[in-house]
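Open question from group meeting: does this chain pack into something compact, or does most of it stay loose? Before anyone orders reagents, we agreed to write out a predicted structure and look at it together. Recording both the input and the output here so the notebook holds the full record.
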Amino acid sequence: MRVLAVNAGSSSIKLSVLDEDGGTLASESLPPDAPIEAFVVAAPDFGAVGHRIVHGGHLHRESALLDDTLERDLGKLADLAPLHNRRGLARVEEVSRLLPGTPQVLCFDTAFHASLPDEASTYAVPWEWRERLGVLRYGFHGLSHDWASRRCAELIGRPRAELRIVSCHLGSGASLAAVARGRSVDTTMGMTPNEGLVMATRSGSFGPGAVMWLLRDAGIGTDELEHTLEHESGLRGIAGTGDMRELLARDDGQARLAVAVYLHRLRASIAAMAAAMEGLDALVFTGGVGEHAPVIRAEACAGLGFLGIVLDTAANERANVDALVGERVAVVTAREDLQIAAEVRRVLS
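Structure tokens returned:
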């Protein structure tokens, strides 16, 4: 079955029609709020649509065929990942209007992390918050981590079921996953995508006490705080831009500090993921920064020698497609579209 994969992200909508063998028949990247009708109308014939939906909440822990109940639930989940879920829902509604009767499968980015053990998913907050409100660590970028860890195992030449892999999705949003024998056992993002690593415009982990002080004593309103932590923090907050390429090209104190903060959090978090698996067999980089910034890969690995990570400098510099850049280090092109298509076929079968 040919599948239309719709990946509505925070900075773009990526569209592709994939054939049964994973070949790309058509693809396009559009601005995040652009309509997709022109692409859908002109695209080669396909039999089903798969949507990347960032947050499935505590009710939806695996990919599922769209029905009225699921669509209503998706609307209720918008506030958990407002930058993503509302855009995802808008694309679902657009496809429903354009192609009534065509099966649509919602592929939740949180689903891959449904295997997190309780000790990794539980916040130390009142138990009622978890049970009644669903306050727990969900994790994100699951489609990317699933694909990257599979492809990493192929490049190394060992079954994923034997490996402990730290997957590093480093893009505009960024997260790590500890993938032990094919299952996610820890990750850096939590209840929302703003936890964990320093990102392009998101703060990553930021103490709740500081949040309360800003709200109560500094006169920062809720809407302003949400916008600032989501859009004006991270690399942009420190150095004025969230574009890693610009920061690496600059030679000023703020740019150097932004990169240093980014790397400090990244190295520490990779080690934490390895600790969750009691060891590390492989490390894989994916996403825009992970794929295209060899200096970030090199600096990250430079602090991980105690885990047995050794980078091949020459291979790292020339890598631009799926490749090994060390005996146990890989660079993998992000292919969430292929993972979406696989999920669609699995659900419909």
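Observations to bring back to the group:
The chain has a mean pLDDT of 94.
Residues 47 and 66 are 15 Å apart (CA to CA).
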